[in-house]
Amino acid sequence: MGLGLLASRTLRTTTILSKSPRIFASQDPSNALRSIVSTPELQNPEAAAAAQPNPTPDLPPRTPVAGARVHLPNPDDAIEVFVDGYPVKIPKGMTVLQACEVAGVDIPRFCYHSRLSIAGNCRMCLVEVEKSPKPVASCAMPALPGMKIKTDTPVAKKAREGVMEFLLMNHPLDCPICDQGGECDLQDQSMAFGSDRGRFTEMKRSVVDKNLGPLVKTVMTRCIQCTRCVRFATEVAGVQDLGMLGRGSGEEIGTYVEKLMTSELSGNVIDICPVGALTSKPFAFKARNWELKGTESIDVTDAVGSNIRIDSRGPEVMRILPRLNEDINEEWISDKTRFCYDGLKRQRLNDPMIRGPDGRFKTVSWRDALAVVAEIAHQVKPEEIVGIAGQLSDAESMMALKDFLNKMGSNNVWCEGNDMHPCADLRSGYLLNSSIGGLEKADVFLLVGTQPRVEAAMVNARIRKTVRATHAKVGYIGPATDFNYDHQHLGTGPQTLLEIAEGRHPFCSALLNAKNPAIIVGAGLFERKDKDAIFYAVETIAKLGKVVRSDWNGLNVLLRNAAQAAALDLGLVPESGKNIESAKFLYLMGADDVNLDKLPDDAFVVYQGHHGDRSVYRANVIFPASAFSEKEGTYENTEGCTQQTLPAVPTVGDARDDWKIIRALSEVAGMQLPYDTPGAIRSRIKTVAPNLLHMDERDPATFSASLKPDFCQKMSLTAFGTTVENFYMTDPITRASKIMAQCSALLLKK
Amino acid sequence: MRTTHHANVRSFRLSTRSGPFSLLHPQNLLHISSSASSSAHFPPKKMLARLASKRLLEIRQVFRQSPQTSRSLSTALNYHIDSPDNNPDVPWEFSDANKEKVKEIISHYPSNYKQSAVIPLLDLAQQQQGGWLPVSAMNAVAKVIEVAPIRVYEVATFYSMFNRSKVGKYHLLVCGTTPCMIRGSREIEDALLKHLGVKRNEVTKDGLFSVGEMECMGCCVNAPMITVADYSNGSEGYTYNYYEDVTPKRVVEIVEMLRRGEKLPPGTQNPLRTKSGPEGGNTTLLSEPKPPPCRDLDAC
Description:
Chain B: Its cofactor is [2Fe-2S] cluster. The structure holds two protein chains of two kinds. Chain A is built from 22 helices and 27 strands.
């Protein structure tokens, strides 16, 4: 496209226009020959006339940019503006840029980001507004009733071109060695709106690169000072480390003192940086974005189920990026989600293996491995068979595991993290009932034994957003920990909880006066012996503060693992509490965080999983399984939203999907499970938990805790513990990841 | 892709600030060119070497045109480098007298806008420290106004009058803005630097003097001018005086007078001028000004 010629063209038309509009309207043939213009209106007098103040009513409707929606809470507050002559109704308070988006006109921008505060310093979004003497920065200009906005006039085009020339003045021309190349806003917009030459002949400036830690690579010379990263760090991540230092042409982004970005969301600055100044350090020089295949999947490293895109090249996962989901992760993901992918390439289990008498593993065929396991499973008593699902298990495999063990005559199956006495009867007892997006409506938070910043970084980001927007109060009961928002540390254990339940605590008044109070209980409490008493106390507080109403359910449990919610929905509840002590045949489906100290020495342990992690040391037989990036699996997140992973890369070695392994084992063991396809296993799931088939939907728990019987148990007064010691290493994948190891080394050093 | 944006040889990416580190620094180039010509033993190579050295000469000349290829930023680096006397672990606190002043300054602002006091407090801290702001002083200010330290660093790096490295007891600031530049501020700076034997933003060995550059101070009518920030008496005896109509000779005299501790009346250094008046007395408006013409109200 000859967009570059736009420069001379625009300059010409402006001068012509200012002198005599008639010449412009009469199509000068030489003019038409010399230039190629992207907008036909300039060539076409009729269309140009249509863009004049009198809007023709039969303009074709336009589709808003990127699904921009207008929500008019109060129709009286709506105002009408005209974008290129096209009338559009928007609520009061919207900016000119947003109005243009609703009208289907994409305005170029660098500093404006819909989730950050408005800076208005890149000037790329200049548009012409009628009766305004100068072009206005549309991102910072509120739309006023009857405003006539023109986005493709010569004035607007020339303004953008000028801004682009200034931005490129100090920007190095190193696109061929820049990691942002191909997905760079500056590259794209200079193609669309820039000139084909610059007039700057001085020295380009250069800026010292900053060390922001093992995740974010900086090439600060490429920075165009949009301050998106500064605003992100200050507003969303809540770590005020980055700032704009110096002034004028010496301006640069930095931390001033040598400081690493210590946020669990720091990877998002890579996405919001419109140029190649902040790029992914582990991904540096690995691949170009057009070589990658994107697979829309979900994250399993915590219970949030952030929507991600797995970018792969051939059999290798190259990087993980967030996907927009307003209800769950907005457009951010945690560093663990983003950078755990290199763990998928290390420590993988390739082949079925059996531990020989010498204590060493020997690779065997699937047939042999399955036969050995089936034989042993028949030798032990049914009640000595125990199955534990790991924290990354999908619903299909958990269903298969439960069905298989039930067929073998055992019901000792549960999911790690859920403890052995989970309360799976009422869904409201283990879900985040307010929903993650719904937390924004809350005005008082009570966090009981949970550290959301490390347990579920995206939920924490949502709480922080709420606290920032509405100054909601946050009370916290648990061990001292880092928060990135204002909070009151009420106490460390059940004592404080009881005080609040009995109305003796000063925080009660805040709870009672709140309109939408939210209580969030950490799933770490599931492991306490007195958890029923604690939950009873929490429910008392809920009753006291009217937390559960017909229009608001603020009694939440924040789960830790991706598998927990689905496991409870599927009823993975063991029969007896002390089953590990008496187990003779233990089936670990990716369970690495179970304490196996009490397991009898003569117990036979089958480990089915994708990583050679903790449990492999005790395993007798290893079944290699596929990881979340290699299979289609159903996961339910902590708020009860069912989502699916999709295979992005082929499995390694001879590994198989989890449910298929169990299905094969059941056949070898002579008690074949009645499903052969994912469809068939899902129809089996439908009979147990139909909500697990409603993809991308959140099924709220219908009955609340009111059905629960009153319970009186002695509460022990030991303080609540820390659930997640190391944010970066929580599951087999992240423990195998080199990048996560670097991060946790920094964490420990701090 | 865009076509060539900058064809000029000067658009090479150079480290603008750290002259000596850059490969294409004139001195380094000199070295390269001499070694290239000396190693030319064979005729074809000789020719090549001659061509190369000629090219390098051209490049050198480009640099010679602008002797200061680095941007003349009035402030030093935009980031902090730890040194024994300037690192976050050095304890720093407002003196007791200044603590009262801090209270007074903060009382000018609403309690929820404490951060508005950042500039006066930084100024106070700078006076107390003898003309410069160590990073721990900025941290102390951040603590007082209850913001993240980076918000204070942003302000301190923005304003060129906050010195983030040590300055002399007398910090001499040469105005470098256009009117002063036209009237010879470059020569004045050169004279100062040569006399004191330092580079810009460096402190003399005795710790008495340092030279910096600043932007227009509004004395263009008496250009060129320098400012002497006198930190020799702490924040109590702190003065910030303008010396106008200076010449390279006069600034050296001023420096010597300051060194001897003599008091020197600020203002124009041209004995023929009175304040901003013209040299040798007025040339216009010599008579009593006529009263403004008034309407004859009675005529109405």
